[in-house]
Amino acid sequence: MAEETKNYLLEEDNETSGFDYKAFLVKLLMYWPWIVACVAVALIGAFFYLKTLTPLYTVSSSILIKNESKGGTNGANLEDLGFVSSSTQSFDNELEILRSRTLIKKVVTALDLYISYSVPGQFRDTELYKQSPVRVWVTPEEAERMGYAQVKMSFHNQQLHEVLVEHEGQEWKKTVESLPAVFSTPVGVFTFSAADSTQQTIQPVPGIIQAIVVSPNAAAASCRSRLAVVPGSKSTTIAQLTVTSSQVARGVDFLNKLVEVYNEEGNNDKNEVAAKTAEFIDERIRIINKELGTTESQLASFKQRAGVVDIAADASQAAGEQANYERAYAENEVQISLVNHLKNHILSEKSQYEVIPANIGLNNSDLNTVVQNYNQMLIERKRLLRTSHEDNPAVQSLNASIEVMRNSVMGAIQTAEKGLLINRQALQAQTRKYADKVSDAPVQEKEYLSISRQQEIQANLYLMLLQKREENNITLASTANNARVIDEPLAGGQFFPTPSQTYTMALGIGLMLPIGVIFLLGLLQFKIQTRGDVERLTNLPIVGDIPLTPETAEGAIVIRENRNELMEEVFRSVRTNIQYMLQEGQKVILFTSTTSGEGKSFNASNLACSFAFMGKKVVIVGLDIRKPGLNKVFHLSHKEAGISQYLSDSEHTDLLSLCQVSTVSPNLYILPGGTIPPNPTELVARQALDDAIQQLKQHFDYVILDTAPIGMVTDTQLIARVADLSVYVCRSNYTAKSEFKLINELQQDGKLPHLCVLINGIDMNKRETGSYYGYGKYGKYGHYGYGKKYGYGYGYGYGQKK
């Protein structure tokens, strides 16, 4: 049966748990001024919120990124070999480059975006872009070191009068007499100059203009977070650039400069091979020019020493052939020299990832092709490193490919060198053959031919290098930009905030917040609050409403004899209602509740006092023998004998001798619970309880029984057989609405005779005070109290101790 009554607390009834929409609408009408006030506050808050926000605008542009490999025309061949990315991957890489921190930082530095100007306002600062009459300049390096600094410029008669620099709580001030002015501080040097005459500055000049200096890295990060770079479609290489900015002009300048810097970086990548080639050609021209001058001096000296001006053509056909072979030999030597230079260049540790000079006059087409492919891979590696790092798998894969290609270059060089050396031997043999035929020629002619040959070789080489230099310069001048602007940057309107959405949201919040709070409070109100809640939950008669009061009293007795205050009148009303419910000869009144903390013992004790004050002889019996509560109410010792001793041995115990006269009134007697027995349920089920009640009815006008909570144990249902009237105590803001299912079941089953309800602890201010206590292992805990200073409570312990 104990388990059965406990399950009542876990069941929910649709009638008790349903939501009363009519009551909710009535409550809304009661609180309509607060709802209107919340809406007004929300709209006013939205108005001032919009005043504090800086409008943001979107600026958009579109560019065409040319899908061609950088650094030469052999990119397609490398792509076929798998050494470079596909066209789609290349386009994605270019988008990442446009979003890269390095590129954006260069834009920020070029436009001085790490320095911003504004005029302090009442709600927000008004930003100035190219409108400040005075320009503040700090080098990017110093701005990076200082991180953040604020410069306040004070103007008098439209002229800069004073500047104040603030940095990390420190201030430096200077009076400005004329512009330009330099202000050196411990954190950096600030330069002040008049704005460009072509710029339209703010008029009239405000009293204070503040400049904020941040690190270029921080400014670049801010710009990067507000920049969107997305492909226009899957089938094109058009990129859409969008940036949000508080100034449209700044957004336009940012996008234009971004494309400009991107093209500059791309052109630098493309021209890297040509630049290296130009350096090589210039160095060779300088050396050949020096050697050619020396040879010409030797030839002039020889003619002067030999005393000849023109040597007759005495040489035979052999001499002519010899000259042809010697010319071929000279050209072969030039090729060997160029091959050796390339060999020394690639074997140098410093040139591991440096491009190899190309187009320097080598006649070996296979070697030229391998060198050009090798340079393409080095350029691709440098481009990847701008947006990645050495540990990137793509970079490591490309490094391996570069090493393979480097070995291929070395193999091609060795092959070309071997062929040239073989050709040299053949040319030398032919030259010696025809040289023997002219051995009879004068020594002067031999020497002359030797010097002349050297001069011719050097002159030809010099002219060839000049030609290659011009070709290389044409390559440098003809480099095309990698990106072309399709749509110029254009403002797309205000992006944030949107006043209509803000006001709509404020209106919704102003309405929903109070309504939601009222709804939730009603929805989460699982406990009874007022008499109306009890009337909706049960048809049982209500004998009284006991309010919370600040009145204090000794113990738990809050009423006094011959006093007409609130609590006295309340318990007189309860007493009268109970008297009307009792029939002739009925004297036994049982008090119970669902669980502890609902004020059962408190109300039983004070009602007993009220009967005693009217001259009735009353005894209150502590039948909650598991945890006698009356001992604490009337300050009795737990060791005192009581009803449990009588029930245990009724034949040898005098019941009336156990009754004690209370100190509250001589008409009030107390029969305490006594010592706690091991079998309380069996004791109250004995006939001895019936005999005890009969004895008490013979000697007292009223017998009030303080029993255990019926929702916890079955003791009260057994005791109910001796009662004439049952008072079920529930407590405002404590008793759950679902517990009235148990109360109604008890009425329907007739387990408690003449059942009525007493509402305890009604507090209009919802203030709860008191001590904490509970029913042992059943886990029901609560608090109970009256007023701000008075509180009372006790705990139950059932079952085995854990």
From TrEMBL:
Which residue positions does the secretion signal occupy? none
Q: What is its EC number?
A: 2.7.10.2
Pfam assignment, any one: AAA_31
According to UniProt, the name of this protein is non-specific protein-tyrosine kinase
Show where the Polysaccharide chain length determinant N-terminal domain sits: 25-110
Q: Which reaction does it catalyse?
A: L-tyrosyl-[protein] + ATP = O-phospho-L-tyrosyl-[protein] + ADP + H(+)
Membrane topology (UniProt): Multi-pass membrane protein
Which CDD domains does the UniProt record give? BY-kinase
Organism of this sequence: Phocaeicola plebeius
